[in-house]
Amino acid sequence: MLTKRIIPCLDIKDGRTVKGTNFVNLRDAGDPVELAKTYVEQGADELVFLDITATVEKRKTLAELVTRIAKTINIPFTVGGGVTSVDDVSAMLYAGADKIAVNSAAVRNPGLVDEIAGQFGSQCLVVAVDTRHTEDGHRVHTHGGRTPTKIDTIEWCNEVARRGAGEILLTSMDHDGTKAGFADELTAEISEQLPIPVIASGGAGTEEHFKTVFEAGKADAALAASIFHFSEIPVPQLKAYLKAEGLPIRVVG
Amino acid sequence: MKTAIIKYNAGNVTSVINALERLGVTPILTDEVEEIRSADKIIFPGQGEASTCMTYLKAKGLDQVIRDLKQPFLGVCLGLQLLCKHSEEGDTDCLGVFDVNVRKFPPLDKVPHVGWNKLTDLKSPLFKGLNEPFFYYVHSYYAELGEQTIAQTDYIKTFSAALHKDNFYAVQAHPEKSGKEGELILKNFLEL
């Protein structure tokens, strides 16, 4: 049976993880590769590295980092943040990333989704969708959720799936950072309509939230950051809980 | 020991090279017939579209070269599918080493099959030390079950997770991305 994936997300700036962690056993808590290794040992199913570096020059640091991650870790990983062109995608895949996440650039130019899928295949393309509930309904937001658009979230997810997205990373800005649970209803609505997997993101605070987003939210995978970085819910504990609750989960070692 | 990775018109082989290097093996990436023939172990990775890749192999004359190889040979993902008889992807006649066909998953669930799934009914030294491991999959086409099936996985259908005939082995999942269990399969293959 296909298992539900647990995906820690690491925010990267200038080649270092930001927000920090409280892993005591890391020699260098700011080194994304060290942190990634820890998650792999704990049984994470995939990793997402989100680059929040602003300048082009510093993006070279990212490609070097991706090369180092690819040499070290033996599970799939996605790189996202600031991907605006086929060339960006090519550089990251060449460095060894398994998948690339595009967000704002796809909203500006939806044809980019077709272009990337056509050139590199849908399997390496994750379209990240940041959504917020407005008085008009669920609307796509760009630039890290700061800039609203008039695009309906569910219609957008269907459109990028048609254009060749391999997976959707759905982040609810209403839930992100609240630790009050994922956007289960919206996730379920999208996941049931789409022929491709949906990764739920935003709002994880307890083990039960993951159970709910997999069951009621119909999510194929769930992503979180701080609860893992600060060991509030260590990955092995979360997976043991979900397995005991009867969900299909890969438990290592 | 010389380990060759067959270079053809297929996706990113970096992850396979990285995985072998983690095992202390430095492979050569080549499409030269003599380099392939003289290797001790050959890995045939793959990510891409079946007909495009078969066309490339034929243009290079590698289709017959591969069929005639006698040393241990490991197909991965599309590499497995190209070793079968025929693929529904692009209505492609493949290498015909394995006596099964490759079909597209019916849309009864999400396609592609993406994520970690279990290998069962393991029947090969390739799986030495493994007990129903989880492997990472990404694929839209699957090889049917047959007499050469040495592992099965369930998703929409029960399909061939791995196949074996003579010196030819193949796995549908990505051992290079499947953690320690994946590394063990690569290690077992290198020790065949």
UniProtKB/TrEMBL annotation, chain A:
The keyword Amino-acid biosynthesis applies. The active site is at D11, D130. Its EC number is 4.3.2.10. Its main location: cytoplasm. InterPro entries: Aldolase_TIM, His_biosynth, HisF, IGPS_HisA/HisF, RibuloseP-bd_barrel. GO terms for biological process: L-histidine biosynthetic process. It comes from the Bacteria. One of its GO terms (molecular function) is imidazoleglycerol-phosphate synthase activity. Pathway: Amino-acid biosynthesis; L-histidine biosynthesis; L-histidine from 5-phospho-alpha-D-ribose 1-diphosphate: step 5/9. Belongs to the HisA/HisF family. PANTHER family: IMIDAZOLE GLYCEROL PHOSPHATE SYNTHASE HISHF, IMIDAZOLE GLYCEROL PHOSPHATE SYNTHASE SUBUNIT HISF/H IGP SYNTHASE SUBUNIT HISF/H. Heterodimer of HisH and HisF. IGPS catalyzes the conversion of PRFAR and glutamine to IGP, AICAR and glutamate. The HisF subunit catalyzes the cyclization activity that produces IGP and AICAR from PRFAR using the ammonia provided by the HisH subunit. This is Imidazole glycerol phosphate synthase subunit HisF. The gene is hisF.
TrEMBL record, chain B:
This is Imidazole glycerol phosphate synthase subunit HisH. It comes from the Bacteria. It holds the Pfam family GATase. Pathway: Amino-acid biosynthesis; L-histidine biosynthesis; L-histidine from 5-phospho-alpha-D-ribose 1-diphosphate: step 5/9. It is found in: Cytoplasm. It comes from Fulvitalea axinellae. InterPro entries: Class_I_gatase-like (IPR029062), GATASE (IPR017926), Imidazole-glycPsynth_HisH (IPR010139). One of its GO terms (cellular component) is cytoplasm.
